[in-house]
Every structure is written in structure tokens, then in C-alpha cells.
Write a structure and sequence with these properties.
elongated, Gyrase A, domain 2, Topoisomerase I, Chain A, domain 4
């Protein structure tokens, strides 16, 4: 493949990889009946006027498989963290003893499991759309390179073929992530 075409394909592949990694991080925040500190990564608390994720203002630990313990670094944050958890509607009620907050993670209902699977599949589809948009942008860049930068027609075609291979690879990664998450959610 010609250097310019390879450069375009590599840039698109990097963007696709970032999208897949974002999906992977997002799927980690889904509560699946086991205590997982990353559940709080998207829950923000007002920290001196700035919305800040709970793990950045406290220590989040899992003393056992069904309990999460949040130890705020400042005592005055306990009420705010408790309210943020309730507002986030994660499916459990925090309780505090003045020093730390405990959250017992209840077992998932069948309805909640189906809801989580639907949400995971939706996130996967959104990621696939992003991947396809990146592929389209890459193809447009290859066509512009052929028109304006002297890239040969064969070079453009070869670049498009390589871009499709990269796209297919990333879509398979997304499908594998969603399948693994679905299995994790269904495991009782």
C-alpha cells in the first residue's frame, strides 16, 4: 500500500480502536449483580463547584462480592455522595455511618438483566455506527488524496479494501465484547 493510503488507513484504525476502548470502559459500568467499583465512574458529585466522579473524591473498595464501600477523602462529601448515588438510580440504596458509605448490591431481577442486555446491545450498535462513520471519512480522504495528491486509482482501491478489513475486525471486536457482557449479565 502506498504511504499516503497507509497513513489514512492507520489514522482511521486508531480512531476505531479508541471507539472500541470507549465501549469497553462503558460496559464495565453496568451493574451485573457483583460489586464492581467502576459502577461509580460515571456518577458525579459536586466537589467545590465542579462535577467530579466519585472515585476521584474517595476510595471505592469491595470487601466482598456484594458490598461496595466508599470512603470519602473529606467528611463533608458523605451526604453529597449518598445523594449522587441515589440520583444515579443504580438500583441500590447507600447507607452511611458518618465515616463511610456502604452499598449492598442486590441480585439482579430477570427484568433488569434483560434491560441491561438491551442497553449493552444499543451501546454496541452506536459504536458500530461510529466505526462505519470513521470508515466513510477514511474513504472520503482516500478519494481526495487520489484527486488532489496524486494517489493512484489502484492505491485508492487498495486503501479502501484495507479500510474495510480494519472495519470488519473492529466490528468483530464489538460483537465479542457485547456477547461477553451478555453472558456476564445472564450468569446468576
Amino acid at each position: 500500500m502506498l504511504p499516503r493510503a497507509k497513513e489514512i488507513v492507520d489514522a482511521a484504525d486508531l480512531k476505531m480502536k479508541d471507539s472500541v476502548e470507549f465501549l469497553e470502559e462503558d460496559l464495565k459500568t453496568y451493574r451485573v449483580g457483583k460489586a464492581n467499583p467502576s459502577i461509580f465512574n460515571n456518577v458525579t458529585v459536586d466537589y467545590y463547584g465542579t462535577p467530579t466522579p466519585i472515585p476521584q473524591v474517595s476510595s471505592v473498595t469491595t470487601p466482598n462480592a456484594t458490598t461496595l464501600v466508599i470512603q470519602p477523602w473529606e467528611r463533608n462529601l458523605i451526604g453529597k455522595i449518598e445523594k449522587a448515588i441515589l440520583d444515579a438510580n443504580l438500583g441500590f440504596t447507600p447507607s452511611n455511618n458518618g465515616d463511610l458509605i456502604r452499598c449492598v448490591v442486590p441480585a439482579l431481577t430477570e427484568e433488569r438483566r434483560r434491560e441491561l442486555i438491551k442497553k449493552a446491545k444499543s451501546a454496541g450498535e452506536t459504536c458500530k455506527v461510529t466505526i462505519r462513520n470513521i470508515r466513510r471519512d477514511g474513504i472520503d480522504m482516500l478519494k481526495k488524496a487520489q484527486k488532489n495528491e496524486g494517489l493512484s486509482e489502484d492505491g485508492e482501491k487498495e486503501g479502501e479494501d484495507e479500510l474495510q478489513k480494519v472495519t470488519d475486525k473492529r466490528v468483530k471486536e464489538i460483537d465479542a465484547l457485547i456477547a461477553a457482557k451478555e453472558k456476564d449479565i445472564l450468569t446468576v
